[in-house]
Structures are given as C-alpha cells and as structure tokens.
Design brief:
The protein is an alpha/beta fold. 35% of the residues lie in helices and 19% in strands. A hairpin with a 2-residue loop joins strand 1 and strand 2. The longest helix is centred in the C-terminal third of the chain and has 21 residues.
C-alpha cells in the first residue's frame, strides 16, 4: 500500500479504478476497510470512477502526528491529502459518521471542487449529549447464531446493531472491528477532546447532487439532527431507513446500494448537462 507523507504523517491510501475521483472518508476509530466494504460492490457495475480510500491519522495504518490535535487539524491534513493526490481536480465525496462531518468541512472550504456528496449516518452534532437520539432497539435477532459468540462479542454487537444475525456480524467484524482494534486510542482521545470544528461549516448552500442516508434506529448520531441542515443541500435526497442503526450500509445493504447508485446517476446527469 502506498503512503502520502504530509506534515510528518504517513497517510496510507489506496486508489482503485480510473475516472472521476471519489474521496471516501471513514468514521472515527475504524479504517478504510469500512468504506471499501460498502462502496466497492457499487463499482462492479459502474466504471469511470477513481475511488480514493485512505486511513485517517491515528486509524488503520496511518499513525497519528504531533501536528494533529483537533478536528480542524484533521480537516487540514485531509485537504492537503486531496491536493496531493488529485491536484486541481474536482471530485465527489462520500463520508461516513465522523467522515461525514469532515466532508461538510471540505465543502465549506472547497465547495467549488466538490461535484457531489453522499453522507452515510453522518455526525451532525459533535457533542454526544446535544444529539437527538432514539433509544437503542434491536429489531431482528438470530438467537441460534448469537449463542456462538462470546459474551464480549455479543455485548459489542448488540450495542451497535438492530439486526443481529450472522451476515451482519461477519461484515461488522471484517469491515469495522478490524479497524477499531488497531486504532491509536491515546492519539484519538485528544481529537475527541476537540471534536467539533472551530468555525461554522454550514454557511453556504451546496447545490450539487447529494444524499443523506440515515438510520431510523441509529442511537449513535441519530437522524433528526440532519434535518437542521436540510436547506443547505437543495439537491439532496434524504432517506431515513427502518431496520437500520449506525451501520446502515451493512444492515440495509440493498437499499444502500440502490440509493448510492441513484445518487451517482444524478451526478452523471449533472456532468452531462454542464
């Protein structure tokens, strides 16, 4: 895997395909396997896209750095990474959870370069206690399968999902737990203490095709707070999915694939008409 060195931080990244760049930004603590797991299946039937996956500092194979202490710093290094990998090019954004928050920061700083954005269970409000959250509620439970997990695995799985079956567990373990298990928790704790941007990120209207995928049962970031920024995205599809917690891309795979494909169709239509 190649690395891109910026501010003495070696950012691990991977580029798949050729064409319109799509920058994929994972959430807080996992790594790029989360984004590859849900996005690569889309491109078995769509080409002409350059998918850019990378591990944020302190996550995956990207080490943290002394120059990164806040989410402002995290955004700055992501912007430098984009400038280094696709200089002077326009691009699409896909951000999950904290990655969705960073994506809004990128739009605030570089809106003229961003030609479309998709948000997967995006973090809208950094402070957990200020979020409007539903209570956690398991909807589907395969007790026979759950009996195969140890107590720690089941507790973790149950706290994060509303569909508890083998299919969800395998993807959760491979795409999310795998990254969380190697994260630099000491480094990430200082980011967590400066989790919100120091500037207002929703001052401009983003007039490109966008998509908000929200879990009705997402007890981590919720779905209601996303409506507070709806008017800033006049070309957005807002989808609130039932039977979906914070890992909506796994629990509602078919709807996820369909809505991401429809978003890309809208982006392509815009490119054709310009």
């Amino acid at each position: 895997m190649p690395f891109c060195t910026l501010n003495n931080v070696d950012i691990k990244y991977e580029i798949i395909g050729e064409g319109k760049p799509i920058v994929m930004i994972h959430g807080f603590t996992p790594d790029s396997r989360l984004m590859k797991g849900c996005m690569e299946p889309i491109f078995t039937k769509k080409d002409a896209y350059k998918r850019i996956y990378f591990d944020l500092p302190g996550m995956g194979k990207t080490k943290g750095g002394t120059s990164i202490n806040t989410t402002d710093d995290m955004l700055n290094i992501v912007l430098k990474f984009i400038d280094a990998i696709i200089p002077d090019q326009s691009f699409l954004l896909v951000g999950e959870s904290y990655g969705g928050y960073l994506a809004r920061g990128i739009i605030a700083k570089r809106s003229e370069k961003v030609k479309g954005a998709a948000f997967i269970c995006p973090m809208i409000i950094p402070q957990f206690e200020k979020r409007s959250l539903p209570s956690h509620n398991v909807i589907v439970e395969d007790k026979t399968f759950l009996n195969q997990l140890n107590e720690i695995e089941e507790t973790d799985f149950r706290s994060n999902h509303v569909i508890l079956n083998e299919k969800t567990w395998v993807r959760y373990k491979d795409e999310i737990v795998s990254g969380c298990s190697i994260a630099d928790q000491e480094f990430l704790s200082k980011i967590k203490n400066n989790y919100g941007f120091s500037f207002e990120i929703d001052k401009i209207k983003f007039n490109e095709p966008s998509l908000f995928l929200l879990g009705l049962q997402d007890s981590v970031v919720g779905y209601k707070d996303a409506f507070t920024i709806l008017e800033n995205f006049p070309r957005s599809t807002f989808a609130i999915l039932d039977k979906a917690g914070h890992n909506l891309q796994i629990e509602q795979e078919n709807l996820f694939n369909s809505l991401i494909n429809e978003w890309l169709d809208r982006v392509e239509e815009g490119c054709t008409s310009n």
